[in-house]
């Protein structure tokens, strides 16, 4: 039988153990918490073996069954986040609203199917993500195709599937005008504009400032609206903007509403009846105990108040309001389990502990200098007496998962877990060094279901082609 550990329930002699990372808003109901504010999945517990347990499943036991590394996705956390977004819009916005799951965070059939079941639409940025969303049950009318360089093949696929296309630039707009010149029913589109709003986040994930590869610049508004109004094959129903990712500030999202509503007024002068405003996403999550992001409800409330206030000030009807959360839906719903391997101590400098994964299953530390925490999943009560550099297995000096990890003395073969790995981990995974990508399991109610098979060595060479002239003879191969 598992015991749920809250802040007040941690014994004094275990305060400096992996137990401490289970601390959240002590005393609140597990399912009433905003999942993005929790370091671990909502169902995280410690069982009587002092193992980390997620969704009623013992994490070390999952590794023994499914292999390592392993993505462990908590279904309850994901569904709770979906519901909190949807219910917050129902409560705070007097008009119609639609929440879209930004599937670039983690695109696979199971995740998209859960989002769809919870009443969310899907935001996609490639043909692959579009096919995945539709195969998972997403409705074309609730599937929005983004991207700054969609190919002609992707645009044709969007046209055939009848999904919404968020047009990013002049090249794409002119291509669509050509493709739709003679179609019977017009293609439904939105226009992505750059609002020029700064926010405090990593430079690589700021997309709302003027110097960005995304969207039409504000000084192009009149020209863009004029062009679109002359295209019978295009039905422009709305505007889109996005100011960044992993944002803890609320004010920029409130400010964005006024900017976008003013654009609606400009569009009306060209006879464009804009019905939708898509304000993007960007709400941050907790990666370490020092992070303090706003709740889903607080973010939605701010967005809704901003749009309502802007529409009232300009005496405009409320548009259908869309948002596109990704990280804040799925980021903290997943932990990645690894197995400890080799160790090395450089006297007076640092100690290295290697795991059987790294930058191929989580490229965020080497790409964004992202910071994570680690749990001794096999010994949650063990004192965190050591400071080590948790290193990956790849042939790259920068392949470091955590620079200063607080851990008990780790033993080769034991299981550790990295929380908050649901967003941009699997989706950005690679085969660097020809390492197979991990499996993923969906856990809930004590059951675990495989949602992504582990790649095999044969999978790695399946797409390789060896010209006859390079073929290895049987004698050479022996």
UniProtKB/TrEMBL annotation:
Classification via Gene3D superfamilies: Alanine racemase, Lyase, Ornithine Decarboxylase, Chain A, domain 1
GO MF annotations in UniProt: diaminopimelate decarboxylase activity; pyridoxal phosphate binding
Pathway: Amino-acid biosynthesis; L-lysine biosynthesis via DAP pathway; L-lysine from DL-2,6-diaminopimelate: step 1/1
CDD domains named among the record's database cross-references: PLPDE_III_DapDC
Keyword Amino-acid biosynthesis: yes
InterPro entries: Ala_racemase/Decarboxylase_C, DAP_deCOOHase_LysA, De-COase2_CS, De-COase2_N, Orn/DAP/Arg_de-COase, PLP-binding_barrel
Keywords: Amino-acid biosynthesis, Decarboxylase, Lyase, Lysine biosynthesis, Pyridoxal phosphate
Annotated Pfam families: Orn_Arg_deC_N
The enzyme's E.C. designation: 4.1.1.20
Cofactor(s) of this protein: pyridoxal 5'-phosphate
SUPFAM superfamilies assigned to the protein according to its UniProt record, in alphabetical order: Alanine racemase C-terminal domain-like, PLP-binding barrel
Catalytic residues of the enzyme: 395 (proton donor)
Gene Ontology process terms (BP): lysine biosynthetic process via diaminopimelate
Modified residues (N6-(pyridoxal phosphate)lysine): 104
Catalytic activity: meso-2,6-diaminopimelate + H(+) = L-lysine + CO2
Binding site for substrate: 327, 364, 368, 396, 424
Binding-site list for pyridoxal 5'-phosphate: 282, 324-327, 424
Subunit relationships: Homodimer.
Annotated family: Belongs to the Orn/Lys/Arg decarboxylase class-II family. LysA subfamily.
Function as written in the Swiss-Prot or TrEMBL entry: Specifically catalyzes the decarboxylation of meso-diaminopimelate (meso-DAP) to L-lysine.
Name of the protein this chain belongs to: Diaminopimelate decarboxylase
Lineage: Bacteria, Bacillati, Cyanobacteriota, Cyanophyceae, Nodosilineales
Gene symbol of the encoding locus: lysA
């Amino acid at each position: 039988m598992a015991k749920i550990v809250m802040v007040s329930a941690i014994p004094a002699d275990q305060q400096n153990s992996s137990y401490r990372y289970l601390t959240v808003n002590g005393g609140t109901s597990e399912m009433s918490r905003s999942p993005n504010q929790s370091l671990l999945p909502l169902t995280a517990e410690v069982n009587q073996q002092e193992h980390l347990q997620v969704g009623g499943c013992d994490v070390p036991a999952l590794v023994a069954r499914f292999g390592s590394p392993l993505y462990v996705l908590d279904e309850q956390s994901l569904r709770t986040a979906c519901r909190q977004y949807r219910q917050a819009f129902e409560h705070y916005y007097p008009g119609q609203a639609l929440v879209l799951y930004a599937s670039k965070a983690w695109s696979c059939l199971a995740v998209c199917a859960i989002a769809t079941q919870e009443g969310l639409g899907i935001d996609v940025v490639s043909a692959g993500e579009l096919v995945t969303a539709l195969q998972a049950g997403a409705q074309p009318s609730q599937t929005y195709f983004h991207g700054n360089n969609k190919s002609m093949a992707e645009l044709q696929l969007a046209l055939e599937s009848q999904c919404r296309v968020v047009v990013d630039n002049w090249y794409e707009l002119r291509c669509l005008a050509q493709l739709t010149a003679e179609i019977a029913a017009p293609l439904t589109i939105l226009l992505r504009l750059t609002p020029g709003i700064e926010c405090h986040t990593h430079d690589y994930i700021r997309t709302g400032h003027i110097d960005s590869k995304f969207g039409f610049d504000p000084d192009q508004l009149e020209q863009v609206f004029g062009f679109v109004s002359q295209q019978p094959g295009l039905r422009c129903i709305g505007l889109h903007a996005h100011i960044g990712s992993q944002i803890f500030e609320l004010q920029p999202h409130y400010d964005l509403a006024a900017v976008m509503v003013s654009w609606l007024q400009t569009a009306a002068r060209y006879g464009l009846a804009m019905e939708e405003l898509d304000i993007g996403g960007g709400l941050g999550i907790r990666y370490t105990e020092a992070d303090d992001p706003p709740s889903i409800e607080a973010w939605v409330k701010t967005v809704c108040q901003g749009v309502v206030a802007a529409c009232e000030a300009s005496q405009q009807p409320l548009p259908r309001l869309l948002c596109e959360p990704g990280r804040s839906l799925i980021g903290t719903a997943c932990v990645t389990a690894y197995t400890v391997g080799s160790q090395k101590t450089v006297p007076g400098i640092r100690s290295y502990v290697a795991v059987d994964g790294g930058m191929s299953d989580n490229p965020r530390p080497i790409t964004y200098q992202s910071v994570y925490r680690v749990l001794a999943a096999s010994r949650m009560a063990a004192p965190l007496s050591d400071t080590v550099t948790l290193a990956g297995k790849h042939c790259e000096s920068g392949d470091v998962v955590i620079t200063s990890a607080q851990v008990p003395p780790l033993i080769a073969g034991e299981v550790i877990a990295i929380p908050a790995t649901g967003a941009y981990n699997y989706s950005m995974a690679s085969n660097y060094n020809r390492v197979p990508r991990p499996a993923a399991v969906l856990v809930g109610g004590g059951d675990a279901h495989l949602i992504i098979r582990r790649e095999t060595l044969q999978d790695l060479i399946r797409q390789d082609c060896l010209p006859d002239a390079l073929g290895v003879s049987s004698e050479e191969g022996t």
